């Protein structure tokens, strides 16, 4: 059962207060991605938070593209973000683009100039940084800070008309170069960028900066609670300054929460984009990436991601969440839903020498013993089967309970078999092994004559369906980055292992995104891109075992 009653947290409490006090009749939140990459699991935390909390209080949530930087943004990202939000199970109320507000933002900047609260500055980016000062030293005023309102209005107009080159001038707020809060030391409001924007084309060559644009976007849409990550805590006074001085009717409240970090996972879009651009992974939806599209292709379900995001909760903490917690939620979600089946990833042929030639019998097995409603399946059995290479050893160590010469094991859903011969080629490689079976020991027959210690899985050879298995390890080996190195120096060369094996015949015709639990191997998802009618390709989502405790 999905629980979407958000656990009590400081944001929820604030909203309850604001509704009780009559400050707001209805709350409006927003999810404001910049369309400069694909969404990742960190964004999911923000999506779940914003949509769940609005749902809980019959409010609304907008999807707003924060598209104020034409250099990095693309329509491809807009489309993927919409798809991912929908896939996660959410429906937005309004769909907006910050770029649709460019004219209004420009007018607000003019208002600030008229009020003597903004000026055009000719300092270069480096000089501005130098003049800004440090935490211990106050900044210095720019020599252009005292330009008259008229001159500023004229220059800003000329900036808009394209009379200057990129970087030649900026518009800055005139606040306080000595403020202990560095974000208030005359922040840049507009910069020049002669670039084509995905939405507004070549209409603009000046673009608003995040700290100016974001509060205006929120206020224009009537957002009541603007939830953002902790890095913006310092920016809150500037956020409030912009809303007040631009004389916005609506006064949204910015509230910060801790961003999600996961162990063994790099979440920044910049790094993910680098991996994709350099072809170190197979696109944004590579199943090793923490992108929503990668998790989807890996086999994560929307339910499991939502539950994970709710369970980690909303705090001011900055620690990393163990990635095993995410894995816990997909196991939980698939436990009752995923059909059980058998697949052999490292095949070894077994000939059952006392089983009649040309005979195939059908054995019955539950589709999911934890969910009887799913019914039963038929599995063929005959004289030749495949087992895992790992499940046989010619010279086993002590406590090896699987197959070895002279030992008997149980074949899951079938019979006991005992190995009596190992067939090798000239160089000593094992080609196949020979066993006998005991018809008395058929699964479900109630046989109690003797016990065996090992149970192994298998696939009947003549009808087996060839399948590819893709097993994953973390993409990043270690998150502690040494000085002078980057994440690229820590890429795990074994993050993907591709194996060719066999699955039960009833797996023919598997569709992309179908999910199964393979006996002893874990949960798998049929890859939606690589699976063909003839050959399923399975991504391992997670193995079965975990030491993780919630
Ligand atoms: P990145 O640094 O990965 O590029 P971003 O914050 O620049 O992320 P945006 O597109 O600006 O990405 O983010 C959209 C929304 O998602 C913002 O409100 C942001 O706070 C939130 N968000 C992004 N990353 C995380 C995260 N790891 N945990 C929680 N919320 C996040
Ligand atoms: Mg960003």
Attribute tags:
27 strands, Ribosomal Protein L25, Chain P, 550 residues, 3 domains, Rossmann fold, 7-stranded mixed sheet, alpha/beta, binds adenosine-5'-triphosphate, binds magnesium ion
Q: How would you portray this structure in words?
A:
25% of the residues lie in helices and 23% in strands. By secondary structure, it is an alpha/beta fold. α2 crosses α11 and α11 crosses α12 (323-335). The radius of gyration is 31 Å and the shape is elongated. Adenosine-5'-triphosphate binds at residues 32-34, 42-43, 45-46, 228-229, 259-260, 267-269.
Brief characterization of the structure:
The chain is of the alpha/beta class. Helices cover 25% and strands 23% of the residues.
Task: Provide the fold topology.
Layout: H1 10-20, E1 28-31, H2 41-56, E2 60-65, H3 75-87, E3 95-97, H4 102-114, E4 118-121, H5 125-132, H6 149-161, E5 170-173, E6 188-192, E7 206-208, H7 210-220, E8 225-229, H8 236-245, E9 253-257, E10 261-262, H9 269-277, H10 292-298, H11 302-312, E11 320-321, H12 323-335, E12 340-341, E13 343-344, E14 347-352, E15 360-366, E16 376-382, E17 384-388, E18 408-411, E19 416-424, E20 430-438, E21 455-456, E22 459-460, E23 465-472, E24 496-503, E25 515-518, E26 522-526, E27 537-542
Parallel strand pairs: 1-2, 2-3, 8-9, 10-11, 12-25, 14-20, 18-21, 23-27
Antiparallel strand pairs: 4-5, 5-6, 6-7, 13-24, 14-17, 15-16, 17-22, 18-19, 19-20, 23-24, 25-26, 26-27
Helix pairs in contact: 2-11, 7-8, 11-12
The chain binds adenosine-5'-triphosphate and magnesium ion.
């Amino acid at each position: 059962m999905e629980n979407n009653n958000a656990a009590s947290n400081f944001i929820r409490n604030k909203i309850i207060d604001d509704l009780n006090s009559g400050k707001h009749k209805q709350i409006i939140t927003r999810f404001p991605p910049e369309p400069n990459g694909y969404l990742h699991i960190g964004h999911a935390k923000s999506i779940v938070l914003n949509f769940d909390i609005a749902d809980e209080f019959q409010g609304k949530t907008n999807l707003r593209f924060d598209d104020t930087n034409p250099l990095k943004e693309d329509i491809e990202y807009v489309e993927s973000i919409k798809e991912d939000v929908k896939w996660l199970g959410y429906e937005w109320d309004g769909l907006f683009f910050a770029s649709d507000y460019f004219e209004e933002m420009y007018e607000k900047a003019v208002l600030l100039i008229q009020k003597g609260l903004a000026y055009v500055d000719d300092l270069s980016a480096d000089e501005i940084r130098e003049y800004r000062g440090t935490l211990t030293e106050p900044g210095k005023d720019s020599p252009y800070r005292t330009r008259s309102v008229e001159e500023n209005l004229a220059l800003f107009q000329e900036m808009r008309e394209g009379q200057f080159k990129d970087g030649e001038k900026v518009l800055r707020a005139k606040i306080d170069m000595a403020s202990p809060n560095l974000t208030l030391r005359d922040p840049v409001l507009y910069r020049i960028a002669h670039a084509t924007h995905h939405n507004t084309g070549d209409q603009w060559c000046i673009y608003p900066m995040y700290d100016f644009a974001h509060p205006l976007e929120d206020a224009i849409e009537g957002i009541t609670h603007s939830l953002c990550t902790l890095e913006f805590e310092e920016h809150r006074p500037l956020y409030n300054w912009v809303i007040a001085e631009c004389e916005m009717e609506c006064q949204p409240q910015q509230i910060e929460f801790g961003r999600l970090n996961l162990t063994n996972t790099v979440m920044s879009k910049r790094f993910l984009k680098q991996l994709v651009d350099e072809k170190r992974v197979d696109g944004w939806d590579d199943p090793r990436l923490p992108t929503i599209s990668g998790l989807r292709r890996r086999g994560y379900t929307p339910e499991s991601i939502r539950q994970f995001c709710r369970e980690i909760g909303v705090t001011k903490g900055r620690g990393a969440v163990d990635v095993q917690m995410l894995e816990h939620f997909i196991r939980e979600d698939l436990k009752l839903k995923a059909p059980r089946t058998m697949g052999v990833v490292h095949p070894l042929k077994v000939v059952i020498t006392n089983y009649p030639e040309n005979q195939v019998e059908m054995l019955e097995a539950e589709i999911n013993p934890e969910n009887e409603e799913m019914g039963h399946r038929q599995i063929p059995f005959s004289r030749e089967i495949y087992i895992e290479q790992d499940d046989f050893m010619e010279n086993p160590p002590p406590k090896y309970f699987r197959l070895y010469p002279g030992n008997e094991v149980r074949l899951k859903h079938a019979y006991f078999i005992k190995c009596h011969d190992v067939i090798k080629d000239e160089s000593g490689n094992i080609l196949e092994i020979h066993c006998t079976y005991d018809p008395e020991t058929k699964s479900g027959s109630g046989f109690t004559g003797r016990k065996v210690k090992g149970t192994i899985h298998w696939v009947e050879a003549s009808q087996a369906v060839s399948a590819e298995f893709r097993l994953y390890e973390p993409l990043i080996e270690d998150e502690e980055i040494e000085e002078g190195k980057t994440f690229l120096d820590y890429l795990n060369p074994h993050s993907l292992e591709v194996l060719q094996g066999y699955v039960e015949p009833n797996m023919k015709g598997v569709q992309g995104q179908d999910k199964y639990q393979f006996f002893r191997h874990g949960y798998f998802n049929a890859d939606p891109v690589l699976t063909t009618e003839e050959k399923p390709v399975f991504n391992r989502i997670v193995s079965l075992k975990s030491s993780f405790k919630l």
